[in-house]
Design goal:
Length: about 80
């Protein structure tokens, strides 16, 4: 099991984020809130496509790791 040495948070604009991993919370039902919708637009629908392909419903204790090819290397969706 991996251990985090540090955890950093940011308040930057979504389109200015450059990170090795972005964690996104999705509520039960798998619907994107307004912030997730903005991020999905920036990611050219990669978030909504990944949720649909994986049939991710936002259930508690579930997650989905998605690799992307831009300034965000990957994102993890957590239910």
């Amino acid at each position: 099991m991996a251990r985090l040495a540090t955890l950093n948070t940011a308040t930057a604009e979504l389109n200015d984020l450059k990170s090795a991993l972005l964690v996104i919370g999705i509520e039960k039902g798998g619907q994107l809130n307004k912030y997730s919708q903005r991020l999905d637009k920036i990611l050219n629908s990669a978030l909504s496509s990944a949720l649909e392909i994986a049939e991710f419903e936002g259930k508690i204790k579930t997650n989905l790791l998605v690799l992307v090819n831009n300034d965000l290397n990957r994102f993890m969706v957590v239910g």
